[in-house]
Each structure stands twice: as structure tokens, then as C-alpha cells.
Amino acid sequence: MNLSNEPLEKLNVLSFKGVQMRTFQITWLTFFACFFGWFGLAPLMPTIREDLGLTKAQVGNTVIAAVSATIFARLLIGRLCDIWGPRKTYTTLLVIGSIPVMLVGLANDYTSFLLFRLAIGIIGASFVITQYHTTTMFAPKIKGTANAVAGGWGNLGGGVTLMVMPLIFAAIVGAGYTKHDAWRYAMIVPGVMLLVMAVIYYFFTQDTPAGNFSEINRKRESKKFSWAVLADWRVWALAFAYAVCFGMEITFDGVATLHFVDSFKLDQSSAGFWAGVFGGMNLFARAVGGIIADKVGNKYGMKGKGWLLGIVLALEGLGLVLFSQANTLGFAIVAMLTFAMFLKMANGTTYAIVPFINQKHVGTVAGIVGAGGNVGGMLFGFLFKAESITYAQAFMYIGAIVTVVALIVFLTRFDKVAQPETAAQTAGAI
Hints:
With 430 residues, the chain is mainly α. It is 77% helix and 0% strand.
């Protein structure tokens, strides 16, 4: 057996040897870059809000727009991964996504800015490809760990973006440009990053260890959609879970800078730093969730993984409630780090379960669950746009919602064997 053509059974995060590890390193780095395009505007919102004269409700609408387009994009991207393969799918997404990122500076009013932010939202579908591609490169016993590390290091881009984009903005202002121009020029940087990663992805990765889909005739096998996926309650339980962990993560990425500015009177750079610390925990927290999930799964099976997910979700909910009650910056930071740890562990645990729900339609399941995360982010966004609800109250309500979802996860039997697909369920190509 030629092991170079087989999924790896070990993850050496320092290695670039072999197509599996080269693809692993490139896919998380690409996802990292995608966060610069997706959330590059978030830490600049205090300036953008003043420049465009946006109300609280309008700011909330832009936060919703940033995550809502991703819902549909993730559903489509999951299917395209099954049909085209992750290499071509990622390359296409990066090229298309770079366009609104580089052109958002043309927005001069609320409506045009909203439309650009909606278009930029498709970049969030990059996560599905990252998880799909990592899944193809590693053996079952290590899939959860590999997915969690790739997803976590990619998500780390969300934290780094919140820290770095204000610095790019400040450098442009220091070069003599006005604030009106600086935030617009700053967004060209992540747009160029996406184009560079598109070239790297196309030429230096392949769909599976054995070759690209076109070389192994995989495309012919993946055209039919399985309605059994939609009939499996476990898929929806995971979608709910991801709605309240990753959905909360991207919501927090979008509102954290404004919350620290408005509630604790920090300047834009300082607020961006502390918001970035939240995202920075992806360096290890999501990976911790995946590693523990793999160990629990190896000993207790899918049932154990489900219980672990329920526990970390419940602790995330508690941490959010504590954060909502913070009246000093110090307490807010401690509470933020608490709920961030369990939130990101829940992210990793969720995608340690996803690859085993329906192994014939991994891309479709990953797309549905990933879209669930953005549905959560979109719905949470409505709380933050409401004039009658403070940001602190919104965090408290979300904490309660997370706790309810944790109970749903506890009651779900993830160890249930999927029902065999019938001809009627798989009929009809889309």
C-alpha cells in the first residue's frame, strides 16, 4: 500500500511533507486570510459609522448582512465540494469574494455599504471547504483533531483582523490620508490577500490524497442529492449547536469593538485589541475541543461526543450571562475569555461529529451545519440592532438561548445508525 496516497493517521502541525500536510497548511492559512476579507470592516466600524452617519439599527443591519449571505453560500459550497472538489471550489470562491472586498471603498451611503457587506458575506463559506478538505486528508480517528486545528487556526484570522486592520488604517492616516479615505484603502489589503491565496490553492493542493476528483472519477459518484440527510435529526441538532457557538463567535467579531468603545469608553485601536483577544483564543481553544472529542469518541463513541458538546455549550451559556453583567473592563475581559474558551471548544467538538453523520455526503452535512452557524449569527444580529435592547441585554438573552440548545444536544442520540438510503431518497440530481 502506498501510504502517500492514503489519509494520514497522525497530525504533525509543523510538517509540510506530503500532499496531506501541504493541503492542511494551505487550507487553514487560506481560511485565515478569508477572515481578513470577511471581517476586515468590523474593527473600523466606529470610523465608518461616523463617516456614513449610520444609526444603531443600520449598523445592526450591516452586521446581519455580513453573515446572512453566508447561509446560502455555505449550502451551495457544500454541494460544490461534493461535485467539483474542494480545490476548484475554493479557488472560485476566493476570486469572486475578492471583488466586493476591494471595491467596498466605493460605498458612500448606507444602502451601498449594506449591499457591499452582503456580497462580502459569501467569503464565510470558506469554512465549509476547509473542513471538507481536511476531512479527506486524515483518517477517522484523527479527523476531529485535524478539523478543529484547521478551523481554529483559520478562525484565528478573525482575532488578528480585529487587531491588525486598525493598525493598517492608522498607517494610512499617518501617510497623510483622511479617515474618510483610510478605511476604504485599508480594505484593498485583504482583497489582494484573497487573490494570492487563490493562486496558491489552485496550484499547490489536490482534492484527495489519491488525486483530484477529475482524476479518480469522484465527480460521477457525487451528483445525486440524498434527502436522507435532511431527514436525519442529528444534522439539525448539530446545526442548532453551531448556530449558538460559531453563530455567537461571528456576531461577537462584528459587535465587540463597538461594545468596548460604547460601554467602556475605549478608543478604536484599544477596543480592537481586546476584541482581537477573543478571536486569538482560536490558536488553541477550538483545537482543544477537537482533541478532547476524538479522545472521548475513541473511548465512548458518538454518544460521548454528544455529551461533551452539550457540556461545553452549557458552560458557554453561563459565561455569556456573566459577560452581560460585567460593569468593569477587567471583569468583562475575564468573562469574555471564559465564554470564548467553551464557545470555541464547542466549535471544534461540533465538527468532530460532522464527518461521521453521513460519510457519503460529508460536504452536504458540513454545508448544512455550517449554514446553521450563520443563521445563528444572523438572528443574533437582530438583537444587537434593536433600539430597545442594550448590547449587554442581548448577550444575556443569547446566553439563555445557548443553554436551551445545550439541553437539545444532550437529548440527541448521536450514536444512532443512519438509515439506509432508498432509491427515492437519492433520486434527482441537483
